[in-house]
Amino acid sequence: MKIVVLGTGCPKCHALADAAKKVADQLGIAYTLERVTDIGKITDYGVMMTPALVIDGKVKVVGKVPSESELSQLLQKS
Question: At what angle do helices 11-27 and 68-77 cross, to 10 degrees?
């Protein structure tokens, strides 16, 4: 699974990356985590608000840090 966190490096962006890593580790999911901070690359995903979470190429969350429960559901469904 490829998890991508889109954001310019703000505290919420770091919080989303940390939470995604924590939940994926708890679930025992094999994943790679990438952080994209370049505005041009972020807009290539069609995202205009950060932070955003992309799982296997699909934008799943935009503009917020979801709860660990929400993240767990998103990661298990993908």
Answer: 60
- Span 15-66, pLDDT tens digits: 999 999 999 999 999 999 999 999 999 999 999 999 999 999 999 999 999 9
Could you give the count of Cα atoms lying within 13 Å of 24 in the half-sphere of its Cβ?
18
51 touches 63 (CB < 8 A): yes
- For residue 36, give the nearest of 18, 61, 22, 53 by alpha carbon: 53
State the Cα–Cα distance between residues 57 and 60, nearest whole angstrom.
9
DSSP reduced 3-state for 51: coil
Run of H or E residues at 61: strand 58-62
